[in-house]
Amino acid sequence: MIEPRSGYTLPVFATASAVAALRYLQKSEKLESVEIDLITPPQKVTIPVEQIALLDNGKALGITLSDPGDNLDITANTPIWALVSLEGRKPNRETVIIEGGEGVGKQLNRQGEAAIYRYAKQILIENLQGLIDDDQQVTVKIILPEGRRLAQRTSNEAFGVVEGLSLLGTTGISQPLTAPGQLTAFQEELGRKAREFSTLVFCVGENGLDLAQKQGINPEQLVKTANWLGPLLVAAGEQGVKSLVLFGYHGKLIKLAGGVFHTHHHLADARLEILTALGAKVGLSTDRLQQLLASETTEAGLEYLRGLSDGEEIVDRVYSAIARRIDENSQDYIRKHAEKAVTVGSVLFDRNRNIITMSSSARQFLPSLKRG
Predict the structure, then answer these.
(1) Is 349 helix (H, G, I), strand (E, B) or coil?
(2) Is 2 a member of any domain?
(3) 159 and 224: one domain?
(4) How far apart (Å, rounded) are the C-alpha atoms in residues 272 and 249?
(5) Beta bridge pairs of residue 97
(6) CA 151, CA 131: separation in Å to the nearest integer?
(7) Which residues are CB-contacts of 103 (< 8 A; sequence separation ≥ 6)?
(8) 60 phi, psi to nearest 5 deg
(9) DSSP letters of 192-220?
(10) Do the Cβ atoms of 23 and 132 come closer than 8 Å?
(11) What is the mean pLDDT of each run of 10 residues along the chain (372 residues)?
(12) How many domains does the chain have?
């Protein structure tokens, strides 16, 4: 079997664009590629440069194209621009100043600060600082021309990032988590852990993985699933797992309540329809159901419910029904495809990583999953 190809995260291409633009300002070199130190992992890679241009105001523009590898990633082939200026260093200013331009998201919980996170800043600063003198200052504005449009197809807004994409990640390597070949690696990890534990916790993404550990759950019992929940549920049954807890963002796990077992947005959505249908099941009025269905995202739907006069009680009813349906559908899915009985519980959290609800099965299993 051909192994899925890894690629690089957005911060790497932003850095490559910035380095190419800076070198053009310094030496009038139109480089076809640049060498970038990924820092994490500690290796250097060569990134192709798509275009370099000198602008009238003494700035240079570098452009690269995102290549995340064999991932179902909406940023594939997205142009990454870096607008760079070089001048004498001003007192009390950093040598590398990083700004977010059009298409880079804004963080609502940080007064609109650009969604350029720690690793992105680190890789930019460390790769640019070595190219300038101590008395110089380089200013980099990252621009994602397609960022605002692409962000509409992500869960960014649910996590407080609006008007564009985030430059996030903790590493320069983009592992092909959604490529079909990666499923084998996930199944192998699951098999190893199933031989040691009869109860496992499935985490759809990094947020679930991090929150589960903060809840004190033994990390050895955590399995990251990416969007391969369906195949991995079946694999858990085949490997003899007796019980599972699904730990994830409600905007992802809600798909299971509607019978959708591959959670990537390229393949299926219907989240608001599922939320509205289960709202009807617990007796919400027609007016409330119409408002719920008109919400832009599941997070917005949750906030609408919370804002009702009886919001706390309504959220409890609706999300308890969602959690029960996730449990039931997951158990049925395993029984149908693996012919095994596995008890499933679910824990759903919101964009602030606060737990909304957990099913009765999850409440039963969680104490035994705690470390020590």
Answers:
(1) strand
(2) no
(3) no
(4) 14
(5) 139
(6) 33
(7) 143, 144, 145, 146, 147, 148, 164, 165
(8) -125, 145
(9) HHHTT-SEEEEESSHHHHHHHHHTTB-GG
(10) no
(11) 75 97 93 95 95 91 92 86 93 91 90 91 95 93 95 75 87 68 77 93 84 89 86 92 94 89 59 91 93 88 94 95 96 92 95 91 91 64
(12) 2
pTM above 0.70, yes or no: no
Reference 158, options 227, 246, 265, 252; nearest CA is 252
Contact indicator for 292, 305 with CB cutoff of 8 Å: yes
Q: Is 105 helix (H, G, I), strand (E, B) or coil?
A: coil
Q: Are 121 and 180 in contact (CB under 8 A)?
A: no
- Domain range for 15 is 7-174
Question: Kind and range of the H or E element at 189?
Answer: helix 182-194
Q: Pull the structure tokens for residue 361.
A: 């099965």
Do 63 and 148 belong to one domain?
A: yes
DSSP code string of 135-188: TEEEEEEEE-TTHHHHHTTSSTGGGTEESSB-B--SSSEE--TTSTTHHHHHHH
How many Å apart are CA 138 and CA 129, to the nearest integer? 8
Position 235 in a domain: yes
In a domain, 162, yes or no: yes
Q: Are 246 and 344 in contact (CB under 8 A)?
A: yes
Copy the structure tokens of residue 11: 């911060």
